[in-house]
């Protein structure tokens, strides 16, 4: 697949899909963002609604991020959407130090980008923008799980390599895969060096060893959280509101709390009760890269039930 094809299909995304892609992709590029809230889309759908900004979050230093997903390439539309966000930030007295991002379905005219930068600079706001060509390159080079999810494009085959990666697990049953070839192909791991391959596979092994320490109910709960969660402000973490967990899994607050005590003990997650509503943050034990997101994307791509991997510990699904 060529970048041009990615750009062409990306251009055809609906307004709702564009917003959802922005919310899925951008947190992977910034490590100081808190959970993102969406104003411009109806929950659980791709249907847009009036709301400014389309999405926003707070950063670790207390400053704000406003995201505007703009699909209309008409003259002045980028600036028009930006003015709405800037106005709100100024009215609330939180403009200085804020970040405004334009997430665009097209490549804008440079004159309009210059005007947007000047507008933000006057209020102490940083302006950044992501264009069709820039986003397409990110999808092609780094985030092929999102490329497949939103554009329905298959992953690039990885380049040939002489790496012989070991992935031996001491399990009493089932085959023990010696490589992670299919997993690497789907997630485009071909760009890694031999050393990075080996380190990553070792980390996956440690993740599964930690997962095996959980009892079956806790693994089922953890797998359900991964299915419900979305990327968090740190790329190796995912988050979901406690309310959504309670509603989706028909669990009481004490039941959720009891399970989270177990997950926290083994390094798989915690609850941030200072947020409103409270959110659950999950992570792949000691692994500090987006393994959970990769497993989720891999399962979706291969039409595999994620629980086969996380609950039944079928390691052969990665081979």
Write up this protein.
The structure is a single chain. With 319 residues, this protein is an alpha+beta fold. 44% of the residues lie in helices and 12% in strands. It has 13 helices and nine strands. The strands form two sheets. Strands 1-2-3-4-5 form a five-stranded mixed beta sheet. A four-stranded antiparallel beta sheet has the order 6-7-9-8. Helix 1 crosses helix 5 and helix 5 packs across helix 6. The radius of gyration is 21 Å and the shape is globular. The two termini are 24 Å apart. The relative contact order is 0.11. About 7% of the residues have low confidence.
Task: Considering the chains and any ligands shown, give keywords for the structure.
319 residues; alpha+beta; 5-stranded mixed beta sheet; 9 strands; globular
């Amino acid at each position: 697949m060529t970048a041009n094809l990615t750009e062409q299909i990306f251009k055809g995304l609906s307004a709702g899909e564009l917003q959802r892609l922005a919310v899925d992709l951008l947190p992977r590029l910034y490590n100081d963002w808190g959970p993102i809230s969406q104003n411009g889309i109806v929950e659980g759908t791709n249907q847009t609604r009036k709301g400014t900004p389309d999405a926003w979050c707070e950063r670790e230093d207390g400053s704000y991020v406003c995201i505007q997903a703009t699909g209309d390439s008409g003259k002045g539309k980028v600036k028009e959407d930006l003015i709405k966000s800037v106005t709100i930030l100024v009215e609330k007295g939180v403009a200085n130090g804020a970040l405004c991002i334009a997430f665009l379905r097209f490549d804008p005219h440079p004159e309009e980008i210059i005007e947007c930068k000047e507008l933000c600079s006057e209020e102490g706001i940083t302006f950044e923008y992501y264009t069709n060509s820039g986003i397409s390159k990110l999808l092609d080079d780094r985030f092929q799980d999102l490329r497949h999810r939103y554009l329905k494009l298959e992953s690039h085959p990885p380049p040939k390599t002489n790496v012989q990666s070991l992935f031996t697990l001491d399990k009493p049953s089932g085959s023990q895969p010696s490589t992670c070839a299919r997993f690497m192909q789907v997630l485009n791991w071909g760009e890694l060096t031999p050393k990075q391959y080996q380190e990553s596979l070792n980390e996956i092994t440690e993740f599964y060893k930690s997962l095996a320490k959980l009892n079956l109910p806790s693994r089922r709960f953890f797998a359900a959280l991964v299915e419900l969660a979305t990327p968090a402000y740190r790329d190796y973490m995912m988050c979901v509101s406690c309310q959504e967990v309670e509603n989706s899994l028909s669990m009481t607050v004490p039941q959720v709390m009891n399970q989270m005590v177990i997950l926290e003990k083994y390094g798989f997650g915690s609850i941030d009760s200072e947020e409103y509503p409270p959110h659950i943050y999950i992570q792949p034990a000691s692994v500090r890269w987006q393994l959970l997101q990769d497993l989720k994307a891999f399962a979706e791509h291969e039409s595999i039930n994620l629980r086969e991997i996380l609950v039944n510990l079928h390691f052969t699904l990665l081979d």
